[in-house]
Amino acid sequence: MTITARLKKYWCDFAIHLFDIEMTGTVIAEVAVVSPQNNTVLGQKVVNGTFTESRQIALDGAFEGVLNGALGEFVRTFSRDPTLLDALRRVAPKPASGG
């Protein structure tokens, strides 16, 4: 099986408030599960991961941290999506029954 992810958006933004900086990271990709036998797409979906946190100071590491958080949310969303899980089940090898 092949899982492809076509990145559509990988972005970080911030909003300055009176006492903090609100940072938001976003990862959006089109994920597809492809059958290895005939390259048929068994399931595909646009998956979104967004992460927001507030900080007192926003240096380079802050942007990286927020984007890593967004990537974590993206993986969580992907791993729980019923359409993609169903496609993965259809391709997964069946366990050998034996005694």
Kindly describe this structure:
By secondary structure, the chain is of the alpha+beta class. It has one domain (2-91). It is built from 2 helices and 3 strands. Strands 1-2-3 form a 3-stranded antiparallel β-sheet. Strand 2 (21-34) and strand 3 (41-55) form a beta hairpin. The radius of gyration is 18 Å and the shape is elongated. 14% of the residues are buried.
Give a brief description.
Helix content is 31%, strand content 44%. It has 99 residues and is of the alpha+beta class.
H and E order: EEEHH
List the quaternary state of the chains: single chain
The number of helical runs is 2
Question: Level of helix content?
Answer: 25-40%
Strand content: 35-45%
- The helix/strand class is alpha+beta
Arrangement of strands in the largest sheet: 1-2-3
Number-wise, the strands total 3
Keywords for this structure?
3 strands; 99 residues; 3-stranded antiparallel sheet
Write the layout of secondary structure elements.
Blueprint: E1 2-16, E2 21-34, E3 41-55, H1 60-80, H2 82-91
